[in-house]
Design a protein that fits this description.
- By secondary structure, this protein is an alpha/beta fold.
- It has 5 helices and 11 strands.
- The protein has helices at residues 14-23, 66-76, 86-93, 150-158, 218-231, and strands spanning 2-7, 27-32, 43-46, 81-84, 100-102, 110-118, 134-141, 145-147, 162-166, 178-182, 188-191.
- The strands form 2 sheets. Strands 2-1-3-4-11-10-9-6-7 form a 9-stranded mixed sheet, sandwiched between helices. A two-stranded antiparallel ribbon has the order 5-8.
- Strand 3 (43-46), helix 2 (66-76) and strand 4 form a beta-alpha-beta unit.
- The longest helix has 14 residues, at 218-231.
- The N and C termini lie close together (9 Å).
- The mean pLDDT is 96.
Amino acid sequence: MRVGVITFPGSLDDRDAQRAVKLGGGEPVALWHGDHDLKNVDAIVLPGGFSYGDYLRAGAIAAHSPIMSEVIAAANGGMPVLGICNGFQILVESHLLPGGLVRNDHGDFVCRDQKLRVENTSTAWSNGFKEDEEIIIPLKNGEGGYIADQATLDRLEGEGQVVFRYLEVNPNGSANDIAGISNARGNVVGLMPHPEHATEAGFGPDTRAAMRSGTDGLTFFTSAISSLMANA
């Protein structure tokens, strides 16, 4: 399965995302923000970074990149799309996901291994987890506070669109401890933590078993690729 990873000016986790796709059993395909060609990919990852220097708002300029018109059409057609950190910000600015992301409530950049609870296992990117499973995924952001009006929050909670929730500590002041959400269809998922940094033993978060041994993030990519193969 071919999984496209888009590089925007200021992306810095695109190569990590490509490697995660490969480790998950897929074929990574490099996509460029200025193109209108998705190169016949089966899924798309919008990686983390600081697209266009986070000018205006994080993700606001990238949402108007030429390739995003193709991404929006593909997502609306059911293609799996994952937005990680800045990619999540781009998804909300593109209105593929509701709400918004603002400066952390404490005003500081945060970088930590973050415990999450899996709330929804029916999405394209979370179906390999167990419901209520607790995972550790690295987090690094300065504008990660998820916000939405009360009606939107109620809808997300009521319809099961909260996919991941922060545990033990809310690192950025997100409403309802929300770490990641999906669209109603479940093919588009955005989250602030970085699963691509927890895909290979020796390079992930610390666990009780060993330092840097955490690979919980790999399940994001194996979930999507397995789903694509099952539906091929």
